[in-house]
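Recall the central idea of this unit: under ordinary conditions, the amino acid sequence of a chain determines the structure it adopts. In this exercise we apply that idea directly, starting from the sequence alone.
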Amino acid sequence: MKFLARLAAGDIALWRAFWLIGVPLALLWDISGLSMLTGFGVGEPLVATFIILVFTLLSAAMPFVAVAIWRSASRYPRQAWWKHGLAWSAKLCAVFSGLTAAISFCVVLYLAFSFIYAGEVPF
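Accordingly, the structure predicted from this sequence is:
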């Protein structure tokens, strides 16, 4: 919990927040989303459920990580002129990833509740 509090406050170094936390989560999110788009695991309900669950959990976690990266980039020391570009690039990446993940999370929740309301199973 202390690590999550430090991460949320932006007390983690930018390179750690971006490269060790943000990039692996984004890659897993991309892979799970791509596997849903390509239909991987369609014939296997357990695999399809696992992929949807991983995508949903990562879509919920990505906005939190995006805020952490933004805060870490705001605290990034900028002695050299090129470090301003690194900080702003990390912020832009965090905004894009956080917004797309939040929208995806809302879509997954909408689809889940519409299937529950209709009484159908999507696979």
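The chain has one domain: 10-118.
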